[in-house]
Each structure stands twice: as C-alpha cells, then as structure tokens.
Design a protein that fits this description.
globular
C-alpha cells in the first residue's frame, strides 16, 4: 500500500541513481546538485518515520523498504566516493567499517526476526546515522568547495566509523545472547 511514508521511502531509492549520475558529470554545478539530492533523500528518512507514526501509516511495505532504502543510499554513495572521491587510501577502511556494520545488522535483524525478537534502533545509532549522513554530504561536495570541507567530511566519516563500531558491537552482543539461548547445553559451536 502506497502512502506518504512509503512514497518518501521510495523517493530515497529513486534518488540513488541521480546522486551517482551527478557525481559522474564533469560540471561545476554537479557536486552541488548531488549534495542537494543526497541531503533531501537523507531527510526523507526522518519524515517517512514521522508520517508513518503521526498519521498511522505504518505498513509492512514501509517496515521492509525503510532500512533497505537507507542502506542502499549509504552503500551506493560510499562506493562512489571510494572510486572517484576522497575516500581513497586509508579512508577506505572507514567506508568498509560502515558497510560491514550495515550487513551485520541486517543479518542480525533477519535472524532475530525468526525468533520474534526485535532489535530496536538505539539513540547512539541515530547519532551515528546523523554524523554519517553529514560526513557523506561534506564529501560529496569534493573539489567544488574549499579543501577544509573535505577535511571536515573525512573527520566526520571517521567519527561515524567509530560510532559504527560501538553500535555494531552493541547489536552483535544482543544477537549473540539470543544465539547462545538456542544452543543445547554442553554443545560447543
């Protein structure tokens, strides 16, 4: 069922190829358009949740698509920034940490869903997302702005990677508790 919340989530997915295309264009305005599209897409993450709760538009489709849209947006832009942007060299590790955590948390959520156990988003994970999205926006501007903009973006992406490690560990610890409950006594897996 399409409602305002789900349309916002779908718009986030549809923005991905536009952001990527803008980064590939060799025009002075294209990084700014990419940042605008990315920021608009990132903001829809807050608004789709707001509309879903406020107007009782929570749906199975929305609960399925929302985390996928977030991960697709972040993964696509991080890969692009590694290929053609400032996330080269040692900074690739920040992107890898973020991507690995996203895969880990997705797997944990799937596993825990089979056990009918929710894995709620922590307040620290919300901060991680905000720092991560801000970092990516700074990095998308690239050479179109002063060099300090990229420097701030790189600092923020490493802060996001640190927060990613902490929140990933918290989620993993929760998941491992439920995995340990499943093991028969005396077994060593």
């Amino acid at each position: 069922m399409l409602n305002t919340a789900n349309i916002l989530t779908l718009s986030r997915i549809l923005a991905i190829p536009l952001v990527v295309a803008c980064q590939w264009l060799d025009r002075p305005w294209s990084p700014w358009v990419a940042v605008f599209l990315f920021a608009a897409a990132a903001i829809t993450d807050w608004f789709d949740g707001y509309f879903a709760r406020r107007y009782h538009q929570i749906s199975r489709l929305g609960r399925f698509l929302d985390p996928i849209a977030d991960k697709l947006l972040v993964a696509a832009v991080l890969v692009m920034l590694v290929q053609d942007g400032p996330l080269g060299g040692v900074h690739v590790f920040a992107a890898l940490i973020i991507l690995a955590r996203e895969i880990l948390v997705s797997g944990l959520r799937e596993f825990l869903a089979e056990l009918h156990v929710g894995l709620p988003v922590s307040q620290l994970a919300k901060w991680k997302t905000a720092v991560q999205m801000t970092a990516i926006a700074f990095l998308l501007v690239g050479n179109a702005a002063a060099s300090w903009v990229t420097t701030i973006g790189l600092c923020l992406i490493w802060i996001a990677a640190g927060l990613t490690l902490v929140t990933g560990y918290d989620y993993l610890r929760t998941g491992l508790r439920h995995m340990a409950e499943d093991a028969p006594p005396g077994s060593a897996e």
